[in-house]
Amino acid sequence: MIVIDGSHGEGGGQILRTALALSLVTGQPFRIENIRSGRRKPGLMRQHLTAVNAAKAVGDADVDGNTIGSQRFSFHPRILKSGKYHFAVGTAGSCTLVLQTILPALIMSDGPSELILEGGTHNPFAPPFDFLKRSFLALINRMGPTVSAGLEKPGFYPAGGGRFIVAIEPASLKKIRLNRRGEIIHGQAVAKVANLPLNIAQRELKVVRKEMEWDPSRLKAVAVDNANGPGNVLTIEVESDTITEVFTGFGERGVSAENVAKRAVKQAQEYLAADVPVGRFLADQLLVPMAIAGGGSYLTLSPSLHTRTNVDIIRSFLDVNIDIQQVGSEQWKIVI
Question: Tens digits of per-residue pLDDT, 59-72?
Answer without folding.
Answer: 999 999 999 999 99
